[in-house]
Write a structure and sequence with these properties.
Helices cover about 75% and strands about 0% of the residues. By secondary structure, the chain is mainly alpha-helical. The protein has a single domain (about 25-210, about 225-319), classed as Growth Hormone, Chain: A (Up-down Bundle).
């Protein structure tokens, strides 16, 4: 989405620090932050809920994995397009309209056979219509914070940290509902939660009054033109494949060890440790360049997956 222009940075001689409390005290920010992350809970809940729903319908692990992957891939591909739609028509249509469509087709999956193609079509449509809550929030924050660079930086950092919480709470909530009540209830909860959060953002005064700045660049691939950007996106895609595959691997491990709770616990453990790692990394000054840090962390990230290939017991898998 097009972000409003921010005020010029203050001189280095007069640094300004804005705490999270000051960000939350800014009118509308707390409501929008809360509503956005409630509305984004389906990002963490839906793949896990789909795994349980498909398993209840007798789907194989491959079929379950394809269903969950179809939702994630469709959502990832559609977000830039929905952001463009918000640029052209405002936020109401992609947020309220997208959330309504997504909720309706996901609810339909509950009453369909997840092993048949109509259910797969509904899952893809749900992903395509998934509302672009993150980009809409980040387009609003500079205006709400009067373009203050320190305030915007603090708000973005807070938003990034809260996003990880979505992938901790979402899988756990879906697992608890699916195992204690039913998989259908877990998926229906996804629809209610996602729709409520998106509508809360779309009906807020800042979202309703927000107007995009006119775009001069009509190139759909303009974001890919800067040197190095395709490599960055390819790296993100590779990491995303590993993270997304964990949902399916967790379901397979849960089957083999007769421990259904692993389906949501493994993705949640990964996200929780990700929050911890980010806090640890940001807390201290580490020797070496950021490039060295990236290489070291990437190598550790790859090595840490190797024990999971040996199909360890549930507790060791979590570790």
């Amino acid at each position: 989405m097009t972000l409003p222009a921010t005020a010029p940075l203050r001189p280095a001689s007069a640094p300004v620090s804005v705490g999270y409390a000051a960000v939350f005290r800014t009118p509308h920010v707390a409501r929008l932050m809360l509503a956005t992350h409630i509305g984004r809970l389906p990002c963490g809940m839906t793949p896990v809920a789909l795994l349980f729903v498909a398993a209840a319908d007798g789907a194989s692990l491959a079929q379950r994995g394809m269903l969950a992957a179809a939702y994630g891939l469709a959502a990832a591909l559609s977000q830039p397009l929905l952001g463009r739609l918000a640029d052209a028509r405002g936020q109401a249509l992609p947020l309220a309209g997208g959330a309504t469509v997504s909720a309706a087709v996901l609810a339909a999956v509950v009453f369909l056979d997840a092993t048949r193609w109509p259910a797969a079509v509904c899952v893809v449509v749900a992903g395509v219509a998934s509302p672009p809550l993150e980009s809409c929030l980040r387009a609003l924050l500079p205006t709400l914070l009067d373009g203050r660079p320190a305030g915007v930086k603090a708000a973005y950092a807070l938003d990034s940290s809260a996003q990880e919480g979505v992938y901790v709470v979402g899988p756990l909530l879906a697992t608890v509902l699916a195992t204690t009540i039913s998989p259908g209830v877990a998926l229906l909860t996804v629809t209610v939660v996602g729709l409520a959060g998106a509508l809360a953002v779309a009906t807020s005064r800042p979202s309703r009054s927000w107007r995009p700045h006119p775009r001069r660049d009509r190139d759909l691939l303009g974001a890919l033109r800067p040197a190095g950007m395709p490599v960055v996106l390819a790296a993100y895609a590779c990491v995303g494949v590993a993270l997304g595959a964990l949902n399916v691997a967790a379901a397979g491990s849960a089957d083999r060890h007769d421990a259904l709770w692993l389906t949501g616990a493994l993705p949640a453990a990964l996200s929780l440790s990700g929050i911890t790692g980010g806090l640890v990394y940001g807390r201290w000054a580490w020797p070496g360049s950021r490039t060295t840090h990236l290489h070291a962390l990437a190598a550790l990230f790859a090595l840490a997956w190797i024990p999971l290939l040996m199909d360890p017991p549930p507790v060791l898998a979590l570790a």
